[in-house]
Specification:
Helices cover about 75% and strands about 0% of the residues. The protein is mostly helical. The longest helix is centred in the middle third of the chain and has 29 residues, at about 25-55. The radius of gyration is 15 Å and the shape is elongated. The model has no long low-confidence stretch (mean pLDDT about 80).
């Protein structure tokens, strides 16, 4: 799995620049990055949900609402 990580990380950086990567293998640092990324996901989904409602994409709006709930519950 480690050999796939650089490719995955590179694609993620291109797709979502605010997403942070782990720079240390210390547990506290890794958890901090994880929670910041979850918060970023939640905020992006929260902004996208009303747009989906406006264009009538109810399934996308429901999925975004579910993602927001899961991201902020963690």
């Amino acid at each position: 799995m480690d050999y796939l990580l650089p490719m995955c990380g590179s694609g993620l950086k291109d797709a979502a620049p605010p997403i942070q990567t782990v720079t240390s293998y210390k547990g506290t640092d890794m958890l901090g990055v994880y929670y910041k990324n979850l918060e970023e996901l939640g905020m992006k989904a929260k902004k996208l949900e009303p747009i989906a409602q406006k264009v009538g994409a109810i399934d996308i709006a429901n999925y975004m609402a579910d993602l927001v709930g899961q991201a902020f519950k963690a």
